[in-house]
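$ run holo --ligand "protoporphyrin IX containing FE" --emit tokens
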Amino acid sequence: MNLIAGHRALEAPVGVPVWDIDPYDPDVLVDPMPYYRQLRERGEVVFLRRYGVLAVGRYDTTKAVFTDYENFVSSRGVGLEDFAVTEPWRPPSIILETDPPDHTKARRVMARALSPKVAKECARLFEEEADALVDALLEKGTFEAVTEFAEIYPTTVFPKAVGMTEVHQRYLVDYGAMVFNAIGPDNALRRAAMAHAPEIVPWIMASCARDRLTKDGLGAMIYDTADTGEITLDEAGMLVRSFLSAGVDTTVTGIGNALWCLSQNPEQWELLKSDPSLIRPAFEEVLRFTSPVHTFCRTAGRPTQISGVPVEEGTKVVCVLGAANHDPDKWGDPENFRVDRRPVGHVAFGVGIHGCVGQNIARAELQAVLSAMVRKVDRIEAIGEPVWRPNNAIRALDKLPIRLTPQ
Ligand code: HEM
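-- output --
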């Protein structure tokens, strides 16, 4: 069996455009728009020879694969590794990396803990911390937005919401980098992130234990479910781990990317300040425009097809959410960042049964951050070149020097 990046490599299927690009090359990851465009233009489905996989990037096709959970399964991994042929680097997530009926049970428990009502209850905490952080940064005036704002805010509020009694902000950020780089091939990015595993993974696992959590947080809600018998105690620990895997790096990236979008488009910031009802649509546009999670995979669980192209069982399909969110056939003028676009149907949170279960929390965090800024900040200026941080699944900044001017 010819294994590439942990999956059975496919031969080029007849009639499918063959492309020799490496989408996980750091140069592509930091400047992905030309890759996104070419991927869409080459066809409904493209064969990436280097990895022996199919790739999709048109909006309708990407959405079709993501929603077809019966043919395109998650239980064989949402990265390049096929768990049917390769041992995963950690025990698979019992929500992200499962299919119904197992997925349905875990999803029900998580959806309850992350419901709109719960997100609303977190709002006061989120607002207080956002106000305090924006005040402190206004006091400084100029600062490094990634390390001093984007990484600080979620690693302050989210562990409190979860009820963590011991917080290591750097470990939380680095764990996210590990989880998301693991979605890609065994390249230098993945190896560098994984080098931290022996130090961080035991800390993460210990932090998910019941006795390390307060009795009133999201974590306790998950463990309470175990008391009713709906899930086991082990499963509860695994779901708390999902909070830490999926709920930190994503929102760190959402905040950094929002600051980038607004600092690069001052007229859009003026529009947002003049009409705060646009805060929510502005965040959705940040998500569409930057796709913080740019790529996730699926595996064909049985022989199937994509847009009439036959797909063999075991085929990995690289689904490029970033390309779908810039498809001109769907969005008209995707290259323009417009806070009043209201991009209903963007796929930055995924779509279908695995669509982000934490989106209410993500929106509540960003609502608090952007609302504090709209009330307190007059101008957001980039005072240096933004630098992107390549990651196999996340499109995040590494450096964003900015200046905030108070109102
Ligand atoms: C801007 C912030 C966020 C973005 C862009 C984002 C993106 C995504 C995407 C694209 C998926 C779909 C994965 C797939 O279909 O394979 C997903 C699923 C998921 N997200 Fe988020 N996410 C964000 C915030 C959060 C937060 C704050 C949490 C936790 C509180 C969270 C927890 C999860 C979980 C547990 C799943 C798996 C759901 C399932 O498989 O049913 N996410 N997210």
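-- notes --
The mean pLDDT is 97.
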